[in-house]
Amino acid sequence: MQTRSRWGAVAVGLFGFVLSSxxxxxxxxxxxxxxxxxxxxxxKATEGGSDPSLxxxxxxxxxxxxxxxxxxxxxxxxxxxxxxxxxxxxxxxAKTGVVPTVITxxxxxxxxxxVATAVRKAxxxxxxxxHSNTVPAIVKALGxxxxxxxxxxSYATMFVLTPGAEGKAAxxxxxxxxxxxxxxxxxxxxxVVK
Length: 194
Prior knowledge:
CATH architecture: 3-Layer(aba) Sandwich
Strand order of the largest sheet: 3-2-4-1-5-6
Number of strands: 6
Helix content: 25-40%
Oligomer: single chain
Number of domains: 1
Structural class: alpha/beta
């Protein structure tokens, strides 16, 4: 019993030290998201023309995305006008009740700017489901590093971005979720969204 009390006192003392030292200080920022999760849509079906639905693997990836976000509720979900992005976000949307905002895909630079603007208007956690050639550009538009397009065979990549405060760069963590991607070619090409 005495050990628990001693550890409890150490924990309380350490917590007090961290707060008083300023290591954890409340962020005084204008309304902006605290965290942005960016993913490419799940695997798409081979049929369906230029706007195919998700394949069985893509539907499993949509479930894996919901599982990966199980301990958080996005305040906003942003998708494109193509079915595969909405279908990828559908499980998260159904579980949380958050209705996705649709940003029309079209002119590349305008689309990226429109998504970045929508993200900046949101607060809390924001989920963005895009495409192999838009997700890296959105990371950059939100203050992250310049990244190459994702390979056309890459679906497991997740970027977790914490917006920068007071002129500082955004912090980005590269993660993966769902089934692992197969081996990537040494020189892969990103997909062009039309």
